[in-house]
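Q: Given only this backbone (305 positions), what sequence would you predict?
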């Protein structure tokens, strides 16, 4: 058991507060993140840092576990050494007892570090670009992502709860949710890949052929993956395996922070679940907005396989 896990057992639920959204340079972020912004912005990346960046609920934890497995040669025991949120710090996460801040966690890690962020390009600490760090970006179609985000907020006790699905769709489209506009996020990171070391991947491609996408990640990391190791990583990181793995499914987090009786952290992990939530009118409206806002970017997203 790690120090953080043992601290969980003495966690005081009365210390939980609901995080409000505050706009920073056009992007709604959690108020504690904005309060600590100078520290986050001045974070010192190292040249051998690997950053996993996503808009929330785009497959972040999935990619974190894939990268950790590649780093450790497919050794599942090494990847069970601690929960994923300890192994790969979330750099803009502020201290929330019993969790230290993401910056503190990152600074305590030996190199080479794997780190996580949900920040849009223009808010990423500049040292990542100055040090020419490798960045893996995962993008997911907006319909499935919106559904996943909605259910995540319902179970996360630090976030303001949406009234209902219809209200959430409106706030998501308007970009007034945490981390702002999905459209801006995916487009700006798509442009960034032309100027920085960014591997841009799609959740739907990972669902279609996980082995193929893992090979891309390993190649980007300059790691040779023998076939047996690749097969082991594929088996370990399939959704069915991840869902029951306490090192990645966040069941080690107290219920008063994440109530998985409302919705599990690892919920369905499929492409097309949006059909169970979107009305025809909502779906058609989002299609039109995507066509309009993404047309010049060259980005396209699959909403079914």
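A: Predicted residues:
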């Amino acid at each position: 058991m790690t120090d953080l896990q043992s601290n969980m057992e003495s966690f005081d639920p009365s210390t939980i507060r609901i995080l409000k959204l505050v706009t920073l340079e056009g992007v709604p972020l959690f108020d504690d993140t904005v309060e600590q912004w100078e520290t986050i912005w001045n974070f010192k990346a190292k040249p051998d840092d690997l950053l996993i960046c996503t808009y929330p609920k785009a497959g972040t934890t999935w990619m974190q576990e894939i990268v950790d497995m590649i780093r450790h040669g497919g050794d599942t025991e090494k990847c069970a050494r601690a929960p994923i949120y300890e192994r790969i710090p979330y750099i803009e996460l502020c201290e929330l007892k019993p969790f230290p801040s993401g910056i503190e966690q990152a600074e305590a890690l030996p190199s080479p570090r794997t780190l996580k962020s949900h920040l849009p390009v223009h808010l990423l600490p500049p040292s990542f670009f100055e040090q020419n760090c490798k960045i893996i970006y995962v993008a997911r179609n907006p319909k499935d992502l919106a559904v996943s985000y909605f259910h995540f907020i319902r179970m996360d006790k630090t976030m303001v709860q949406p009234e209902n699905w219809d209200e959430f769709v409106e706030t998501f489209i308007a970009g007034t949710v945490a981390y702002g506009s999905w459209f801006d996020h995916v487009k700006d990171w798509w442009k960034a890949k032309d100027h920085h070391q960014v591997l841009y991947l799609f959740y739907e491609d990972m669902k279609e052929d996980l082995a193929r996408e893992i090979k891309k990640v390993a190649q980007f990391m300059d790691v040779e993956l023998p076939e047996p190791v690749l097969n082991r990583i594929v088996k370990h990181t399939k959704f069915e395996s991840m869902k029951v793995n306490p090192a990645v499914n966040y069941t080690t987090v107290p219920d008063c922070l994440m109530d998985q009786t409302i919705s599990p952290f690892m919920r369905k992990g499929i492409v097309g679940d949006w059909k169970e939530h979107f009305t025809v009118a909502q779906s058609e409206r989002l299609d039109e907005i995507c066509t309009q806002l993404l047309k010049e970017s060259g980005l396209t997203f699959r909403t079914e396989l």
